DNA sequence: CAAAACTCTGCCGTTGACGTAAAGGTTGGG
DNA sequence: CCCAACCTTTACGTCAACGGCAGAGTTTTG
């Protein structure tokens, strides 16, 4: 995202955060960050020479994404790995797409692939929203009945 | 719900299901049903003289509700206990409301109480739906971009 | 009425997502 | 240079939501 090379092994751009700061800003614990890394969900953008993890803003975004997928969609970390993998793949595709060397046929295939990934996820989310909407409809009906009763009898 | 007394201790109305049948119909395990009972979420409507659990259709509905609250809203069983408690309370209120002996002032109070309970839950659900909607909007934007690219270049 | 099938109450095991503590290495201010 | 604060890996602990088994009792079926 920044112009830097892929996963800097050298010391940091100064803008990178230690695990403590990153955890605080992301609203999770250090343990969680290490755990996500252990599962291959999130590799810190850098390490110091001494071996300490350094997190970028993009890394924080990724943490936020993980939490969102957890709490909003109720996915477990393995499923989240798949979704994030898809999103990473989409970025790769984007890169290849804008590469001059990619021929039109391949470009089309890449677009279709990322479309498939996004559409698939959309299905999951839409199903969930539909169920939630039903839930809300029932709830609103109940609230409406009570409100009407109140209005009729005690206005 | 049926005309029977509260939580029949005697033998069953014949329409009640054994734990095995109930579990199969509800799509959960017997262990889960016993666990829900242990947590006070679901007391089987009856027991045989020998002490075996008997589940009614209403019990099955309750299981479905529990699962819904779990998967849809991501509540844990303790939180579900609260929600179900509120719903039970609403039923009590309903009963008292239609009781001749309840005076108007009390009736109003009862209505207001159940309104508060329902409205509170609605808040939780609505927040979740809003978050999901945002999620969907982002996703749709991404899909739209890809689709447009496809249409422009490869129509 | 007996065998087969089902269920009962413990009670210990498992899985996911971390928590927490130990024993040491790294970093930055004075 | 030194020390306090922060970080490292390693490894065992925890909590929710059940899974699964043993040993005994119950219900059903032939």
Explain what this protein looks like in three dimensions.
With 155 residues, chain A is an all-alpha fold. Helix content of chain A is 68%, strand content 3%. The first copy, chain A, contains five helices and two strands; from the N terminus they run ααββααα. Chain A has helices spanning 19-26, 30-38, 57-71, 77-98, 104-154, and strands spanning 46-47, 53-54. Chain A has a two-stranded antiparallel ribbon. In chain A, helix 4 crosses helix 5 (104-154). The longest helix of chain A is centred in the last third of the chain and has 51 residues, at 104-154. Chain A starts with 18 loop residues before the first helix and ends with a helix. The A-B interface holds A 68, 71-74, 104, 107-108, 111-112, 114-115, 118-119, 121-122, 125-126, 128-129, 131-133, 135-136, 139-140, 142-143, 146-147, 149-150, 153-154 and B 68, 71-74, 104, 107-108, 111-112, 114-115, 118-119, 121-122, 125-126, 128-129, 131-133, 135-136, 139-140, 142-143, 146-147, 149-150, 153-154. The structure holds a DNA duplex (30 and 30 nucleotides).
Total DSSP E strands of chain A: 2
Largest interface here, residues on each chain?
A-B, 35 and 35 residues
What does the overall shape of chain A look like? flat
**Mean pLDDT figure of chain A:** 89
Short description:
The structure is a homodimer of 155-residue chains. With 155 residues, chain A is an all-alpha fold.
